[in-house]
Amino acid sequence: MERLWAPWRLAYVTSASGNNPDCIFCNTSEPGRGDLIIARGRVSFVILNLYPYNNGHLMVVPVRHVPSLASLTGDEQTELMRLTRHAEIALNEAYSPQGLNIGINLGRPAGAGVADHLHVHLVPRWNGDTNFMSVIGNVRVLPEDLNATKARLQPIFERLARAGE
Ligand SMILES: [Zn+2]
Fold it and tell me: What is d(CA 68, CA 160) in angstroms, rounded to the nearest whole number?
């Protein structure tokens, strides 16, 4: 007997395209997650970190579920670096940080939260910031609302993409 509704086939199709149904980066089309995306290229995208270390914490991610720089195609290498460059420009313009951490953690011992889908972190830094919550006179200051972060950064990414930078 044939069944018309076959969710396992969807899973099969998804994994056949190289994506992992259990991966948070592969599942950015799920409700709520896509909202975190602030820029899309052809083979990669820029997404806000749901648990930011600091205001403006971004990640640049290839669309394909790949674990390392070694796995990237030439196109992916080029676009990942271009979007990382756009992210640097956007964060400097929007937040005027005193420094930026830009980095990749490969594997869990190296601190990767999502170990098998490559992503480049960009974290704005200021003198004296301690961690993702600043403590001022015993009052914890929550990071900026993610919608506000998106509203600040998205127009800058759009401008850079239009300019073909
Ligand atoms: Zn993935």
Answer: 27
Question: Which of these, 129, 124, 128, lies nearest to 152 by C-alpha position?
Answer: 124
Rounded to an integer, what is the distance from CA 78 to the centroid of its chain? 16
Residue 11 Cα distances to 6, 22, 125, angstroms: 9, 10, 40
CA 135 to ligand 1 centroid distance, Å: 34
Are the CB atoms for 77 and 42 separated by under 8 Å?
no
**Distances in Å between the alpha carbon of 62 and those of 39, 40, 66, 102, 133?**
12, 10, 8, 16, 29
Structure tokens at 97: 């940080």
Give tens-digit pLDDT for 104-113. Answer: 999 888 888 8
Contact (Cβ atoms closer than 8 angstroms) between residue 13 and residue 35: no
CB under 5 Å of ion ligand 1: residues: 20, 23, 25-26, 65, 117
- Ligand 1: distance of its center to the CA of 27 in Å? 7
119 catalytic per annotation: yes
User: What is the CA(77)–ligand 1 centre distance, in A?
Assistant: 17
- The pLDDT-based confidence of 13 (bands split at 50, 70, 90) is very low
> Of 118 and 1, which is predicted with more confidence?
118
Task: Say if residues 26 and 116 touch (Cβ distance below 8 Å).
Answer: no
